[in-house]
Amino acid sequence: MNIAYLNGQYLPIEQAKISPLDRGFLFGDGVYEVVPSYEGKLVGFLPHLQRMNKGLEAIGISTGWSENQWLDLCLKLIQQNGAGNLGIYLQISRGTYDTRAHRFPDKVNPTIFAFCFEIPPAPVADKSLAKTYTVSTARDIRWDRRDIKSTSLLGNVLHYQQGVEQGNQETLLFNDRNELTEASSCNAFIVKNGSVITPPLDHQKLPGITRQILIDILRNDGNISVEERTVTMDEVAEADEVWITSSSREIAPVIAIDSVPVGDGQVGDVWLAAQTLFSANRFNY
Ligand code: PDD
Questions:
Q1: I need a surface site. Which of 185, 203, 209, 244 has the fewest CB within 10 A?
Q2: pLDDT (tens digit per residue) in 137-175
């Protein structure tokens, strides 16, 4: 049974009902998070919560919830859904109001919804077991505040589907200066001559927690150089390795872009080194 949380109640997800007048449904007026948990252990709970609170602040929603309340919610969901490998989904919308009007209602209680879904076991640092990706490319058509993890995901959904329709599992996105932003549901990295390079944080991309943890782990280790700087389309095409990162995938090697092999088309050595470090340190965050 899948036990969800909705506005103070834990209940089977089929019984969780939200009004069609909820602003999350009408306007995509809300934010969300996905926190990974392996065998009952959360990865990156605090940074996920910090990003969520920043997003809530940016769109003017206040839940009044403390860090402990959010942690308690995550732990209760794990407890009630069996401590396997779970993505814990948290969503806060501005709430349900009795009319559809764009302006923020004066008095409205946020809708707080959470549930769990199964994710693959934590990736292991083994080239032969790595889940590899092939991706498409596209001009990034999304809105200008991609740093907010908004539930308005139409642009992301359309971009993801572009990849699917071309037989791929993701789409790498480029701005109108042909600079890499991210992928439709992941951040993106390239490797060139042993250096790991990823575009800097700004409004064009989500500040991914996997990205943040990976950069921190690599810098603490000190054996692989990490650069946060603009990455051009040409650099992506000439990269030795390309990775996409997200909470449910960790570091995923991309082996072909628009049907052209990345490097030698195999999972790379720098990926192996990075995933080895990530696997050893994921529960320290
Ligand atoms: N996706 N960029 C975008 C657009 C994303 O949607 C995500 C995550 C990321 C990676 O962020 P993180 O490392 O914090 O998971 C980057 C989530 C998992 C999703 O929408 O399901």
A1: 203
A2: 999 999 999 999 999 999 999 999 999 999 999 999 999
Question: Hey, which residues does 189 pair with through a beta bridge?
Answer: 243
Contacts of 218 (CB under 8 A, 6+ apart): 196, 224, 226, 274, 277
Judge if 134 and 261 occupy the same domain. Answer: yes
Q: Report the distance separating Cα 143 and Cα 31, nearest Å.
A: 15
- Cβ-based neighbour number of residue 67 at 10 Å: 12
CATH number at residue 113: 3.30.470.10
Best probe residue, ligand 1, of 247, 278, 282 (max atoms within 8 Å of C-beta): 247
Amino acid identity of residue 198, one-letter, is T
Domain housing 159: 127-284
How far is ligand 1, taken at its centre, from the CA of residue 276, in Å? 21
Write out the two tokens for 146.
């991609």
Do 139 and 99 sit in the same domain of this protein?
A: no
Is the pTM of the predicted complex or chain greater than 0.85?
Answer: yes
pLDDT tens digit sequence for 14-34 = 999 999 999 999 999 999 999
Is 29's C-beta closer than 6 angstroms to any atom of ligand 1? no
Tell me, yes or no, whether 109 and 65 share the same domain. yes
Among 186, 209, 251, residue to substitute to test ligand 1 (most atoms within 8 Å of Cβ): 186
118, 153, 180 - which closes a domain: 118
The residues that are catalytic are 149
Which of 85, 118, 151 finishes a domain?
Answer: 118
Closest CA to 125 of 6, 279, 264, 15: 279
